[in-house]
Amino acid sequence: MLPLNPALAATFRPPVMEARRWLAGLTFPPERPLINLSQAAPVEPPPEPLRRAMAEAALERADAHLYGPVLGRPELREAVARDWSRAYAGTIRPEEVAITQGCNQAFCAAIQSLAGPGDEVILPAPWYFNHKMWLDMQGIRTVPVRCGAEMVPDAAEAARLVTERSRAIVLVSPNNPSGAEYPAETLRAFAELARSRSLALVLDETYRDFDAREGAPHDLFADPDWGEVLIHLYSFSKAYRLTGHRVGAVIASPARMAEIEKFLDTVAICAGQIGQIGAAWGMANLRDWLAGERAEILARRAAMAEGMAEGMAQLPGWRVKGCGAYFTWAEHPFDMPAPDLAQRLLREAGVLLLPGTMFMPEGDVQGARHVRIAFANADRDGIAALMQRLEAFRP
After folding, report:
1. What is the pLDDT of residue 311?
2. 3-state DSSP call for residue 166?
3. How many other CB atoms are found less than 10 A from the CB of residue 371?
4. Measured in whole angstroms, how far is the alpha carbon of residue 340 from the centre of its chain?
5. Where is 200: in which H helix or E strand?
6. Is residue 219 part of a domain?
7. Helices marked H in the chain — which ranges?
8. Which of 261, 285, 309 is the C-terminal boundary of a domain?
9. Across the beta sheet with 319-324, what order do the strands follow?
10. What is the domain count for the chain?
11. Are strands 354-355 and 370-374 parallel, antiparallel or unpaired?
């Protein structure tokens, strides 16, 4: 038998792919089609003007088919630096921006520059499972910090978990899987904790375009020394429906960027050129369209919150713990673990969602009590249908 990396072997299999395997052999009648709430990704293509711009680049621009700079196309790096500086009332330079093959790669690059086998990284639980998977693959210990009211972690609680092996704290806001939007004061408290203990604060703002709040969600970039603490991650996939083109970004100090460049050159050389061209075109031309996308997501969020509101007679026992961006994190009322519930909902109600166990430490009782509902691809009629099916479900 060929050798196998033990860290990779010990890493759990991708949860979304596991959920897709549950579909094998199942059929859904036309009068009750599958409601797929398992994955947090747009299923529609980019808007037609963006597709046309990308098609034109593919036909007319020779550099769209060649290797590009490891850290990304200059025009996209400049656009991110300019727009982020304005949005966050801070100073971000193009050399502090790198473009990656999606935000997952941005996270991997950041962590690779921070920690190695035997080190520790603090993650709020529930966590984004791909973050946990990468840490496991690298032999880095994940230290969970519990989320409190409204699914927001507490910096004072995290401080008690810091050890000499700690290297970073990772936050996602708006959060995957809970949807929670972390208050500015919470992010500031974590930044101060990170600075005081010589840690990095890795802040993943993949879903920032769908934050319900107006204005900047934090002031961390207003600190002229932000690069001593903060590493910021972003995804163009959600904003412009570029999931298949894999375009993300990492913002960090120039010294950190020199280390990140080593990783990016080794694993991908560069992000895809056509996706980067599309992202830059979208930033320049789709501001109003993106505002409409945000309004639609916020309307779906409101429909989810209303449909599952505590005390609603139609869904007795269900309790929403967090709702925002693409997600609802809900406690279910049934006397069965969430993995069993998820598979029964699929077979008996035609609803595919993910059990909380996919986002929590193994054996955690809270994981068995919760589910994640990714509602971004269910319109308001689809959300109404979901409520009807949950109401009719009788285990």
Report:
1. 47
2. strand
3. 26
4. 25
5. strand 200-204
6. yes
7. 6-9, 15-21, 48-60, 74-88, 102-114, 129-137, 155-159, 184-196, 236-240, 254-267, 273-285, 287-307, 338-349, 365-369, 380-392
8. 285
9. 319-324, 327-331, 370-374, 354-355
10. 2
11. antiparallel
Percent of the chain with pLDDT over 70: 99
Domain containing residue 26: CATH number: 3.90.1150.10
Give 307-368 as a DSSP string: HT-TT-TTSTT-EEEEEETTEEEEE--SSS-HHHHHHHHHHHH-EE-EEGGGGS-TT-HHHH
Q: Check if the beta carbon of residue 138 is closer than 8 Å to that of residue 112.
A: yes
Structural domain range at position 370: 6-45+289-392
Nearest partner of 50 among 195, 218, 325, 244, judged by Cα: 244
- Asked if residue 7 lies in contact with residue 138, where contact means CB atoms within 8 angstroms, the answer is yes
Closest CA to 348 of 39, 31, 26, 37: 26
The tens digit of pLDDT for each residue in 41-56 reads 888 899 999 999 999 9
Among 335, 303, 298, 332, smallest CA distance to 315 is for 332
| Residue that is last in its domain, among 253, 269, 285 | 285
The Cα–Cα gap between 248 and 226 comes to 20
Contacts of 28 (CB under 8 A, 6+ apart): 34, 350
What number of other Cβ atoms are within 10 A of residue 308's Cβ?
Answer: 21
Say whether both 358 and 388 belong to one domain. yes
Do 177 and 37 meet the contact criterion of CB atoms below 8 Å apart? no
Cβ–Cβ under 8 Å, residues 109 and 270: no
Do residues 111 and 140 touch, judged by C-beta distance below 8 A? yes
Contact 292, 64 (CB under 8 A): no
Model-wide pTM > 0.70: yes
* Average pLDDT of every residue of the chain: 95
- Angle at the Cα of 133 from the Cα atoms of 132 and 134, rounded to 5 degrees: 95
User: Looking at the structure, do residues 74 and 182 belong to the same domain, yes or no?
Assistant: yes
Contacts of 342 (CB under 8 A, 6+ apart): 19, 22, 352, 353, 354, 355, 371
Q: Each residue of 233-250: pLDDT tens digit?
A: 999 999 999 999 999 999
Shared domain for 279 and 321, answered yes or no, is: no
Distance, in Å, from the CA atom of 237 to the CA atom of 247, rounded to the nearest integer, reads 6
59, exposed or middle or buried, with CB in 10 Å at 0-12, 13-18, 19+? exposed
Residue 174, preceding bond cis, omega within 30 degrees?
yes
